[in-house]
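Per your request, structure below.
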């Protein structure tokens, strides 16, 4: 087996709090891919940037001049993250072969819309990959979602291809959960082939809870789920949340701030007037766990019963989420992805390093059964330094 190449993966997700940067050694490609995580760091956004990105993520408050500037600013911040990670790992930039950058999603429109006689799906990630390549001197692959959308897919989720490469098993039925701002689930029946993978976004992960914590306490997240644990779930509020139409929508499906962002939280707060703050956080946290189980119950259970659930993302540290998932999935082994050599926080960054490697190998890395695309396509734009 060859020594492989060094690749940096970058991810800044719907939580809008930091840039996740992972340095990995990738050997081979396709089913022969092997990955070793060498270094990981999260670099916080400058104060005020989250608010500006949120402002420009909704049509009512966005400005094209601010989006254009944010596109270049984020590329510069990503470049600095790559350089800092390389220094931390004591690796010269010249030894890094590729950067795989997801970019920052500011709007995601996976459902088709009629425009001049065409049915258009659209997404926009900023943090221009060609600027990132120029600033680092490293070939960069970005804009992974648009090719899938061009052939009728939702452009998401993309992580399931990575899950299938890395975590398929010959003897264990597995569910993989990534609880970031949004929660996504990947279903890997034992001995599954590429076209056997089931995956979709179940609903909010940390997104709603993070917004409530900021609103009530001026904090960015519910550390360890401790605030939720002090509250009591409101059956009335939970009942309203659990009737959200997204839960009933058939896969392929993906979601984001467009459905569980500011407007959703505003409606929740309006419905929750007079409720204790901790109870509202507990109810929203319960909804995150319930949406996972509800997605499994509706769309997976008739095909496969899991023996193991592997959890990643910031929500893996939220004990309230984990305890509720244990209640919903009794007898199923629940573990963190750290046990497999990839840190929980780094998973999506590692994923985009692998997707960059697949792109350079000429391999398609979308899963049409997951995204709804009409065919397999090579993802991403290759930007040479």
């Amino acid at each position: 087996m060859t020594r492989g190449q060094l690749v940096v993966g970058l991810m800044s997700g719907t939580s809008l709090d930091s840039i996740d940067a992972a340095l990995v050694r990738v050997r081979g490609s396709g089913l022969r891919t092997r990955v070793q995580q060498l270094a990981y760091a999260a670099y916080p956004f400058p104060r005020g940037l989250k608010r500006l990105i949120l402002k420009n993520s909704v049509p009512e408050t966005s400005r094209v001049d601010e989006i254009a500037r944010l596109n270049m600013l984020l590329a510069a911040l990503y470049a600095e993250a790559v350089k800092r990670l390389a220094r931390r790992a004591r690796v010269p930039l010249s030894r890094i072969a590729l950067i795989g950058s997801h970019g920052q999603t500011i709007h995601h429109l996976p459902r088709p819309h009629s425009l001049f006689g065409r049915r258009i799906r659209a997404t926009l990630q900023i943090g221009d990959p060609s600027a990132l390549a120029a600033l680092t001197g490293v070939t960069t692959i970005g804009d992974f979602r648009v090719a899938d959308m061009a052939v009728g897919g939702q452009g998401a989720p993309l992580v399931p291809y990575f899950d299938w490469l890395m975590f398929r098993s010959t003897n264990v039925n597995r569910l993989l959960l990534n609880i970031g701002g949004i929660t996504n689930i990947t279903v890997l029946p034992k001995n599954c082939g590429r076209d056997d993978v089931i995956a979709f976004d179940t609903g909010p992960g940390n997104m709603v809870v993070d917004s409530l914590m900021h609103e009530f306490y001026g904090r960015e997240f519910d550390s360890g789920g401790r605030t939720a644990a002090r509250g009591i779930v409101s059956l009335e509020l939970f009942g309203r949340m659990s009737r959200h139409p997204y839960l009933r929508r058939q896969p392929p499906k993906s979601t984001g701030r467009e459905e569980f962002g500011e407007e959703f939280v505003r409606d929740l707060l309006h419905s929750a007037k007079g409720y204790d703050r901790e109870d509202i956080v507990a109810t929203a946290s319960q909804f995150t766990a319930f949406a996972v189980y509800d997605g499994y119950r509706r769309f997976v259970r008739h095909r496969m019963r899991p023996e193991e659930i592997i959890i990643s993302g910031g929500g893996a540290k939220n004990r309230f989420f984990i305890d509720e998932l244990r209640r919903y999935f009794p007898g199923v082994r629940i573990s963190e992805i750290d046990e497999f050599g990839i840190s929980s926080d780094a998973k999506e960054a590692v994923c985009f390093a692998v997707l960059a490697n697949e792109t350079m190998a000429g391999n398609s890395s979308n899963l049409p059964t997951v995204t709804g695309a009409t065919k397999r396509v090579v993802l991403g734009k290759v930007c040479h330094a």
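DSSP finds 15 helices and 13 strands in the chain.

Regards,
D.
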